[in-house]
Design brief:
Organism: Pseudomonas aeruginosa (strain ATCC 15692 / DSM 22644 / CIP 104116 / JCM 14847 / LMG 12228 / 1C / PRS 101 / PAO1)
Distance between the termini: 85 Å
Keywords: Signal
Protein name: Type 4 fimbrial biogenesis protein PilY2
CATH superfamily of one domain: Copper binding periplasmic protein CusF
GO biological process, one term: type IV pilus-dependent motility
Pfam families: Fimbrial_PilY2
Length: about 120
Amino acid sequence: MKVLPMLLALAVPGLCWAEDPQTFEGAGVVFEVQVEKNLVDIDHRLYRLPNSTVRNGMPSLFQVKPGSVVSYSGTVSQPWSTITDIYIHKQMSEQELAEMIEKEQPRQDGEEQPR
């Protein structure tokens, strides 16, 4: 009978470790991608980005690049938290941005350009 209380005493502390992992989410700018280490620097903080994190059938690690704006979520871990889902926001090219600004500026004579 003394064995049962002993087993319970050993099992109860283990239940604390069985809780759900801590998660996080964020958004920011990619500063560096270290493909060989599966690391990505977002807003000067390193995250692990495993090949299993996939967007459009391809590992996200190969799709992000410095300057990319991303939204992401994952699990807190050490030494780096792991990104399990990432969205890469589409950014306009310089030409697309210049064309948009040109369309929005009024003409010199005060009339707006046709849209």
